[in-house]
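Dear all,

This email documents one entry for the complex benchmark we are building for the journal club exercise. For each entry we list the sequence lines for every component of the assembly. Then comes the predicted three-dimensional structure of the complex as a token string, followed by one or two observations. Please use this as the template for your own entries, and keep the labels exactly as they appear.
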Amino acid sequence: MAFKLYNSLSRRTEAFEPADGETVRMYSCGPTVYNYVHIGNLRTFAFQDILRRHLRQSGWKLRHVMNVTDVEDKIIAAAARKGVPIGDYTRQFVDAFFEDCRLLRLERPDEVPAATDHIPEMITLVKRIERAGHTYRNAGSTYFRIAGWERYGRLSRLEASGIKAGARVDADEYDKEDARDFVLWKAARDGEPSWQSPFGPGRPGWHLECSAMAMAYLGETFDIHTGGVDLQFPHHENEIAQSESATGRPFVRFWVHAEHLLVDGKKMAKSMGNFYTLRDLLDQGWSPDAIRYLLVATPYRKQLNFTFDGLRGAAKAIERLRNFGRRLDGTFAAPHSEASTGMFEAALAQYRSALDDDLNTAGALGAVFEYIRSAHAAMDQGAFGPRNAAEGRRLLAEFDAVFDVMEPASLERLASERIDELVRERAAARKARDFARADAIRNSLAESGVALRDTPNGTEWHYMD
RNA sequence: GGCGCGGUAGCCAAGUGGUAAGGCAGAGGUCUGCAAAACCUUUAUUCGUGGGUUCGAUUCCCACCCGCGCCUCCA
């Protein structure tokens, strides 16, 4: 079963494989570090994480690059307000971003270049675009001339007239020949960071940063470029214009866009009081695992409606997965069951084909849960032997290599010796029919994050997360 | 106005031209000292609305309504 991916460029789901048949070259638009990212941003990054894990699990090597935009209007303005250099201002948000990623178990891309470390590549790219005859200069800035690039609009399918109609002209952009033109190199202004260049002192335009860094690390044509739907226009459209006008080659084979997250069916906005960062949710006591699950359980091309009900459900769903995993770690005395093997094989096939179908995570989860229910039933009926248990573990391992929600977040935990001791005490109390004492122990363990389960073979315990 | 994405049970959500996965929540039961976990049973004659095509549509077509996004910085 081959991996199929929806390509925004063709607006169809296409069979995907890397151009060289071996290594997937992928670029993701990363954060602009002028503030803390919110859960909507994180939805896109979580999608990228699922994509990169699935690509690797499909047997390909992966070279994944994600930029960090650390010089840009909002950053400059905010740093100026605080009276600090932009590097000092952005550092805290870069650190916070990677901490969020770590908590959500988002794998770090192979390269995470910062725009300010790649100014020379950006200058070189502008020179190439200039040589190709697609630029003009005005008042110290260098612009890309859309009128000379007939393929403009292929990705976003926006008519020139539509763009013009909606365009508002920014005060400092009066120097453009056409409202659609965009800046490649912005003239330096007093008190703003700038770099020397053949076009005069200035700084790179936002769109330029991604093109230059993507090509620096991945070559002039690469396999996949990801980002949020809102980046499709103008950012990605402009990236294509810059890159292809400079190289004369296709820039990206697959453009992949993640839909937005809504909160209670509405756009997230600070003024609506429904704006959340990861830290906000953690401070309310939600576990990062549940948040990861929720972000990832809805297929990426569908708007995700974030609700606290959904978050509760995600936490419960994870518990169900983990309980099953724990049960699989027990001993299985029953004989091997071919029927159970059949369930396993069907579930694995269904799971894989769901992810292969443009990362249908909801379908993949359905396959896993269906298997879990039937496996529990088989165990209860004694139709689940040691080899069946090994199959179950294999399914969960493959599942968790992508979803990564089985292992509880690590907290400070009660030492297991101490727990064993309390469990023994409780057993003695129960035997003496001192249920008040037994329940007190159980309650205090629960408060310490330890759940008990009485079975015919004695009491088992596990850490809640 | 232009360009898109979506509307499936209380909530989230998969899916198909042939009669609705899965998760959460709810109800009853088994198990337990009570729980927890697990299991069993149960919860949409119906897939935004109205037409059309078809033997048959939730799935295809048309229109309309609603939500969200992009067209300006934005995941």
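Observations: DSSP finds 15 helices and 15 strands in chain A. The first helix of chain A runs from residue 39 to 57.
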